[in-house]
Amino acid sequence: MLLIVLISIAAVCCCAAGAAPRNEDQLVPHTFAGLNTNVSQGPGATEARLRACADSRARWLASDKSDMSACLRDLLAASFEKLRTADGLPALGVPSMEPLYVTKATISDSSVFTGTISNLYVHGFSEAFLKPNVNVQPSKKNGLMQIKMRAPKGLRILGDFEAKAYLLRSVIPFYDGPPSEVSGLFDAEIDSPTLTINAAYTNDPDHGAVVDGVQLSFNFDNARVKLRNEKLLTNTLLTLLNGMLEDSDLSRKVINEATPDILRGFQDPMFRLLDSGFDETKDIVGR
């Protein structure tokens, strides 16, 4: 029972750095059914490609969706550079993705612990916008598109945590004494994470295919979690927790606990980008 308590405390604490920017216009243009994107390189070419996609939206849901799939990959790739800046895409209301900021996550168990993690920064996800890391799978029966975005170099999540743990309650159920308190810095590294976006599209008379809603999920291979004291002082409880978190299964459980709050940080930005990105091509290419 004590083991469960300690894992839960660590879970409260959770809600890697990307490579140097690469200009998506350096990639070889491609041609697909209905749209020719084999144009010259540069910001102007990227904007022309996105405008051609915007003009084709009225045909997307009535076709085999190959145009739609390619256009969504083009949109995500074109957004890469701006989403690495501090301003992100202000015309769309999309914040910077490098890092992505998540305000706070709260996890509570009235019988064992309460805790919060605040000021979460997710580093490394911008790499997932590049074409080699994006896979788009359309459904041929409806307007559902599944978009998988992989961050091949992993993620690093940093934040501040505070927890109150009622350790003795795991041994003495009716114990009503004061809790043990622990706080400090949360530091996690996640290997091979993939964000899956299920986007439902409907046909708008004025704009063609538009996003009706998105659902997100998150998968990864391994995770490593460390809890640190802000003043680098020895803390017996932190030492104990970090020793337990060396078990990869425990670190995975910690990240899984944080996932719903992290996904909420991604939900609105991804909806705005997929829904309105083709209407703000100048903002995306920085012209």
TrEMBL record:
<dbReference type="InterPro" id="IPR010562">
    <property type="entry name" value="Haemolymph_juvenile_hormone-bd"/>
</dbReference>
<protein>
    <submittedName>
        <fullName>Uncharacterized protein</fullName>
    </submittedName>
</protein>
<keyword id="KW-0732">Signal</keyword>
<feature type="signal peptide">
    <location>
        <begin position="1"/>
        <end position="19"/>
    </location>
</feature>
<dbReference type="InterPro" id="IPR038606">
    <property type="entry name" value="To_sf"/>
</dbReference>
<dbReference type="Pfam" id="PF06585">
    <property type="entry name" value="JHBP"/>
</dbReference>
